[in-house]
Amino acid sequence: MATKHSVCVGDPDCGWIGDLHEHHQCPECKGDLKVGVKCCGELLLCFGFANTCSCDADYNWSGQRLASRQQWGEETGEMASDILHVEAEHECLNCGGEGCAQCSGTGWIGGADLY
């Protein structure tokens, strides 16, 4: 089962991780916080509609696990291709575009990274 945390994305050198909703900004560097999910032993930062772990589990922006993509469909008003095309590509906040494990070395999160 995945656990949710607050993760500092304000300063790449900070690396602070804490209890979800305990703080509104990083207590160490005063930077922005995002929701992070520990899944499969790795921290997955949650930015957009579908944030995908290496095990293919999807989480939304608030760290809630989404139904399997096989269950996405027209009867519920969405299709996987529609949702993934909505994702905007953003510079990785974890590494500032330098390339890291979170962005698979690309320096970018979202859009093409989700296909």
Kindly provide the radius of gyration, computed on alpha-carbon positions and rounded to a whole number of angstroms: 14 Å
Report the span from N to C terminus: 24 Å
> How many distinct domains?
1
Strand content: 15-25%
How would you characterize this protein structure?
The chain is mainly beta. The protein has one domain. Helices cover about 5% and strands about 25% of the residues. It has one helix at about 80-85, and strands spanning about 5-10, 15-20, 35-40, 40-45, 50, 60, 90, 110. The strands form three sheets. A four-stranded antiparallel beta sheet has the order 2-1-3-4, with no helix packed on it. The chain has a two-stranded antiparallel sheet with strand order 5-6. Strands 7-8 form a two-stranded antiparallel sheet.
Write a brief structural summary:
The chain has 115 residues and is mainly β.
Question: What descriptors fit this protein?
Answer:
1 helix, mainly beta, single chain, two-stranded antiparallel sheet, disordered C terminus, 6% helix
Write the layout of secondary structure elements.
Elements: E1 3-8, E2 17-19, E3 33-39, E4 42-45, E5 51-52, E6 58-59, H1 80-86, E7 90-91, E8 108-109
